[in-house]
Design goal:
Blueprint (H helix, E strand, L loop, with lengths): L4 E5 L6 H14 L7 E5 L2 H10 L5 E5 L17 H6 L4 E4 L2 H6 L4 H13 L3 E6 L3 H5 L3 H12 L11 E5 L13 H18 L2 H6 L1 E5 L4 H8 L6 E4 L6 H8 L4
Parallel strand pairs: 1-2, 1-8, 2-3, 3-4, 4-5, 5-6, 6-7, 7-8
Helix pairs in contact: 1-2, 1-11, 5-7, 7-8, 10-11
The structure holds 2-phosphoglycolic acid.
């Protein structure tokens, strides 16, 4: 059985005090959510404070990015996976489409970051997903296959234990246009097939694949019913404790 994961990606939102307030409001609302793992990803500057304030809770902390270099060094502006772990993170989001689109991240870069995360003991939430033109040109599967093959090229089957994939069609992110549960299921089954060919059936059967892109309280349950959807990566609807809690408690 794959335990679902519901992760909130706060992107570049919230000052430290606002991050803490949202985290503390979320805490009691999800205290009984034993059916899934709950993760929030605050901005770097709020990460340690939020992690400290959530100690002893069932909410884990993710960073939104990490350096591709595992070791400390002369890399101005970068934060290493080890530093994130030291600050209280257990997970890190890697290769989000906003980083690929606006900061030029390539699959090779995603691979290096994933390796750095694994080396430092973090679980990597690796994002893949096609753009609208690619879907309309019938290329959704080939684009996602290339991202998976390029981004996971040097990894081993045992590395998959600490990887979570987030399938996020770019046309559904922040647009209010969610993939239908059937469209998402089809792509999730495809991702699992690609990884079973690349690694092993056992490893890909155990892998959690999250859906991301305009997940809201009213569409979460329908998505979560799909056989290969093992959770959600939530942007906008995770910024407010109550709406994020309603997604986490989709089973009630
Ligand atoms: P959204 O963002 O839920 O606001 O569409 C999802 C994401 O970018 O991870």
């Amino acid at each position: 059985m794959r335990k679902p994961v519901i992760a909130g990606n706060w992107k570049m939102h919230k000052l430290v005090a606002e991050s803490v307030a949202t985290a503390l409001a979320l805490r009691p609302l999800v205290a009984n959510a034993n059916h899934c793992e709950v993760i929030i990803a605050p901005v770097f500057t709020a990460l340690k404070t939020v992690a400290d304030r959530l100690e002893g809770s069932n909410i884990r902390i993710a960073a939104q990015d990490c350096a591709p270099e595992a070791k400390q060094g002369a890399h101005t502006g970068e934060v290493s996976a080890e530093m994130l772990r030291d600050a209280g993170a257990t997970h890190v989001i890697i290769g989000h489409s906003e980083r690929r689109q606006f900061y030029g991240e390539t699959d090779a870069f995603v691979l290096r970051k994933t390796q750095a995360a694994l080396q430092s003991g973090l679980t990597a939430i690796v994002c893949v997903g096609e753009m609208l033109e690619q879907r309309e040109a019938g290329m959704a599967e080939s684009v996602v296959r290339a991202q998976l093959e390029g981004g996971m090229r040097e990894l081993t089957p045992s590395d998959l234990d600490r990887i979570i994939i987030a399938y996020e069609p770019v046309w559904a992110i922040g647009t209010g246009r969610t993939a239908t549960p059937e469209q998402a299921q089809e792509m999730h089954a495809f991702v699992r097939r690609v990884l079973s060919e690349r690694f092993s059936t056992a490893a890909s059967d155990a892998l959690r694949i999250l859906y991301g892109g305009s997940v809201k309280p009213d569409n979460a349950a329908g998505l979560m019913k799909q056989a290969d959807i093992d959770g959600a990566l939530v942007g906008g609807a995770s910024l407010e404790a109550e709406s994020f809690a309603n997604i986490i408690n989709y089973n009630q």
